[in-house]
């Protein structure tokens, strides 16, 4: 019977997948914070980091969020995350980039922002540090990864660091534990739908 | 001077980018809910959807989250989002896939889950519906996009629908407004770091 065959094949595939997953989990040894990079030109990089913050809060962890570039529209995340005692939220990039058009001023803002980031990266009470849109600050040469990486790699063992933004430099990719590239296969902006509150198009 | 040239070039590029962004925003006319798909084999798909939920909550919106496949580890998002009155959270995929290895039972669970999803997709008071890991339920043939798409496309005009999971079928991609593919460039799992609470490796 066709249906039985489909069910049997499905069960065999699932059993194999379960074995593989169990093996991966058993083999993995290290229990330490990871350096995660979310890059690429597709949407969802910052959202993904904020979703990870939500998960971390669900586990009672303490989270620091530093936004290096302000979004062109109010996106609600500051309002949302600021209500939690376990979250430190810093919108560093107020008036950045195309709204200001002043390179030296932008660079000074970014450097002051990094001094703040460094404090969290040295704080064992902070379980997760989100450096949102840091890659953009790197791409615009406001900051240089070679100058920052020591602070990131020296963070407390258990602390997760999440860095987002398009154009992650190769040095950062080399240093990261996990790198996801978001690719835009299709974009509503092109189709003439206005950027919406509550959703990152 | 080299520094001036760099600053001038930067300002010119930023001015051009600002013009482009302003034009895009001005040109975009429609103000409606979008169908957003987050797919691919990289990490961050569900996290991204949860981050969008956080943003939406920051705007006072009402969100329904339906998880079609339960994550192999407790990831904290249910615990986190269940505390908000504006969120309806349903973990539909309890014991799904490789933990159960029973195709017909899984399919019945998925179909019951879709009946619930349909209720939210018809509810004008729900501003955002997250169908987490639905693509996986489609890929395993628990559900068929051709049977579901009418419910999704007929939802209230302002309602956002976000569908996640690897292996989005072409029909879904064709119907979507925005599609992001998450590609794994590097994965800590390969490097022997144990899957962690509070972070999606």
TrEMBL record, chains A, B:
<dbReference type="GO" id="GO:0005524">
    <property type="term" value="F:ATP binding"/>
</dbReference>
<dbReference type="InterPro" id="IPR003724">
    <property type="entry name" value="CblAdoTrfase_CobA"/>
</dbReference>
<dbReference type="GO" id="GO:0009236">
    <property type="term" value="P:cobalamin biosynthetic process"/>
</dbReference>
<comment type="pathway">
    <text>Cofactor biosynthesis; adenosylcobalamin biosynthesis; adenosylcobalamin from cob(II)yrinate a,c-diamide: step 2/7.</text>
</comment>
<dbReference type="GO" id="GO:0008817">
    <property type="term" value="F:corrinoid adenosyltransferase activity"/>
</dbReference>
<dbReference type="Pfam" id="PF02572">
    <property type="entry name" value="CobA_CobO_BtuR"/>
</dbReference>
<protein>
    <recommendedName>
        <fullName>Corrinoid adenosyltransferase</fullName>
        <ecNumber>2.5.1.17</ecNumber>
    </recommendedName>
</protein>
<keyword id="KW-0808">Transferase</keyword>
<keyword id="KW-0547">Nucleotide-binding</keyword>
<comment type="similarity">
    <text>Belongs to the Cob(I)alamin adenosyltransferase family.</text>
</comment>
<comment type="function">
    <text>Required for both de novo synthesis of the corrin ring for the assimilation of exogenous corrinoids. Participates in the adenosylation of a variety of incomplete and complete corrinoids.</text>
</comment>
<keyword id="KW-0169">Cobalamin biosynthesis</keyword>
<keyword id="KW-0963">Cytoplasm</keyword>
<dbReference type="GO" id="GO:0005737">
    <property type="term" value="C:cytoplasm"/>
</dbReference>
<dbReference type="GO" id="GO:0006779">
    <property type="term" value="P:porphyrin-containing compound biosynthetic process"/>
</dbReference>
<keyword id="KW-0067">ATP-binding</keyword>
<dbReference type="InterPro" id="IPR027417">
    <property type="entry name" value="P-loop_NTPase"/>
</dbReference>
<keyword id="KW-0627">Porphyrin biosynthesis</keyword>
